[in-house]
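Subject: Protein record for review, amino acid sequence with backbone structure tokens
Category: Structural biology, sequence-to-fold work with a learned token vocabulary.
Format: Residues in single-letter code; tokens as whole numbers, each standing for a residue.
Body of memo: The sequence and its backbone structure tokens, given next.
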Amino acid sequence: MKKYILMVMSTVVLGFTSCSEDTLDEINKDNRHPSPDMVTAVLQLTDAVMSTGFNTVSGDYAFYLGSLNEQEIGVGNNQLMKAEMRNASELASSTTFNNTWNSTYSNLLNIQEMIRKVETEVPGNVGQFDILGMAQVLKALNFGVLTDLHGDIPYSEALKGQEIPQPKLDLQKDIYTGILTTLDEAIANLDKGVALKTASKQDILYGGDAKKWKSLAYALKARYLLHQLAVDSSVLSKAKAAALKAVELGFDGASITEFNGVNCDNPWSAFIWSRSYTASSTTVADIMEAYGDPRLPYYKYDGRNPKAGEGNKAYAPGVLATAQVADGSLAFPAWYDLGSQPLHLFSKAELYFILAETQLRSSEDATAAFQTAVESSVSEIMDLFGDKTDAAAYAASLGAPTLKKLFEQKYIAQSYDEQVETYNDLRRLKAMGENYVALKNPNNTQSGINRYPERLPYGNSSVLGNPEIKVAYGDGTYIYTDKTWINKGK
């Protein structure tokens, strides 16, 4: 009898133990921070696209480079004023681009997680080659911006977390090889996934259309091949072939159109409205005026009617009195006052300017590609304001291009929101001994010393946390003397 009672009690105790363990497991479960694998890669795509546009392509990089390129004037008696005056304490400081440096690497970590989930066949991601290809395109684009602006960067050991907390600096030459390889892999995966349309709702760029992503991959190939022209003339034919393939696939631009100007603002508009740090530049306005450009009244916007303006103004670069104005009274490009204007990751105009350049340098007729580029750029601006100006007629009036005419028109077109690529163009042309857009800021040289950066400084978080980057950064003045690999020339 005692033995029976003991057996029953043991069973009851074991039952309580089992319940207690289940309860403890449930209590100890972290519902607020689930495993990354609980979120499928497709659900990460929207943020990856938006962050690429909002933080990397048109964030602090573009705001500051607008001043360096003289596509806008830095004003406001603060950071952009200092940039306008080419103040080394602003431009060479590791804190200036720290936020964008961090956000771009953070976005790349998100993108790399997308790639990992598909490649390792995490449940919910198996066979989603379209998502894999999209993530690889975004990876190439984000690393492309980082290396173009900073030169040697963490690449092969980056995104490893605590496994490699202090990644080495890779040579820009090797990074370029990696970027082009990634784009080739993306193209292959997009071919595999062309019929899937896994990301129709989450893809704010192309609605899940893998063919359009493939056209963007070829456009990016053309860009990054052409970037190397100063150090490798053999890339010219490859860049032209990639551009033609993008055209064949129907590339019509890659733009984020989610902004409404009410509770979701284009980053340029948010920047202007909150800071009033940008004004119109005579460097752009004078070129526009010389061509009779229909965009000129919109570029010199006085805050009222963008076309009102006999009295609308543009301002000479590098003038302290102008740069100190902080009350928002200066004219600035009207498209920044909408809040709802599309944001380019890669414009149709850029692709056709690339194609036209490769054709011109190959002694081929580039008229059609050049005029398509100009028409695309002009019509985008006219459409924003309901302007019925015939963009095609204006483009045709320019006739056949020369390299000077091409780069002047590209410079104007990229004053919309592609200042990063203008900076890349200006340095590449300088490395090739060519100068088609004359920069006029007198502060670019001070006491015989160059104060126009050859590259941008590393982010402060890496300067403080990574000994190799700290050594490379030094006191920051290397940005005025050390050219990146693609801009050294032969």
